[in-house]
Amino acid sequence: MSWKGLFIAVTLFVFGLAVGVFTQIGSQIIPVIQSFVETQPAEIQSAKLPESKNKKGILTVEQLFNIDTTVVSHVDLTKRIETYGELVHPETDVRDITFKINGYVEKLYADYTGKYIKKGQPLLTVYSPELVSAQEEFIRAYEYLSQIENADNGILKKTAQDMYEAAYKRLLYWDITPQQIENLKKSKKVMKTLTLYSPYDGWIMEKFVNLGSKVEAGKPVLRIAKHENLWLIAKVYEQDIPFIKKGQKVMIHFESYPDQIYHGVVDYIYPMMDIRNRTVDVRIVIPNPEYKLIPGMYSNIHIDIPLGKLMVLPETAVINTGKKQVVFVQKEKGVFEPVFVKLGRYIDGYYEILSGVGHGTVVANSALFLLDADAQLKGKYQKEGEQKPMKMMHHH
């Protein structure tokens, strides 16, 4: 027989012996059987076979299948969540500017979208027949009050005072300034138009009127917003939602500024889920003092969440079907026992261990080397504690 034929024969004999013993196992303990091989010449013990550490030339199944172990331990873990988001205007920062009387736009100072407006700056001038009537009514009320100011009749004086105050307040409600009213009292010249001044600083985000447009009371003519603070709406996937808390610090990279790291804070977690994408919106507030950031920008988001010391195992050491979770505990050299465990969170390649095994327990690091998981959990471990004969499956 050639060396090649002898090598194949020895290998098949050892593997067949191991599989044959496994098929006869009926107890809960899974012994890893040692197969004895006669010492062969040095030429046969090549790199194709695991090198035996036993001086007597014993080759174990652990060596054949390259079984390694790991230890249940407490590890200081940090969960990193990576997602994406888009900048938007803060809803609390958007202002609609409305006119409180009907009229027609005669002059438009805020004449294009994107223009920056300062508080007190004129926005538009409107001609309004209602405004003319209100001013004429105010002038009459003021003149009547002046005529009877020295009269002895208290009732007439009180009536005149009430008429004056009502006409004065009406002009104030229509955003005519006190200074404009004082000028009206002195000049007695009725203004046919009214200029509306901006009550806020900010950019014109939307413009609803043009020169000559009709203005209706209560309808917005402009929409203004600041950019000092922006909202970044992050999309957090369903499995990461339990880790997100208000107040967490966030690192952000914008495609427009790839070399710069921005920082923000989780401000709010929305209570609605995007059913299609399985995500929840998370609001992050980002200061924007230099106005470099613009609503609509896309970003990559990193959230590092310290979890403290957790008792964990690598995911390769756990058979997890969703309903049952099993690890193989080493009882002695080459002997493993399946144990049901309760898992907590999955964190970047590790399972948190809540119960079943304790700190320092040695388990098989590649649990699937012992069995076909589907056959195992449908067979011997269909119900926790119920024992059925288990066969070691060998796939060709």
Automatic annotation (TrEMBL):
Keywords: Transport. GO terms for cellular component: membrane; outer membrane-bounded periplasmic space. Pfam families: Beta-barrel_RND_2, BSH_CusB, CzcB_C. Residues 230-303 form the CusB-like beta-barrel domain. One of its GO terms (molecular function) is transition metal ion binding. SUPFAM superfamilies: HlyD-like secretion proteins. GO terms for biological process: copper ion export; plasma membrane copper ion transport. Residues 99-225 form the CusB-like barrel-sandwich hybrid domain. Residues 313-371 form the CzcB-like C-terminal circularly permuted SH3-like domain. PANTHER family: CATION EFFLUX SYSTEM PROTEIN CUSB. Belongs to the membrane fusion protein (MFP) (TC 8.A.1) family. This is Chemiosmotic efflux system B protein B.
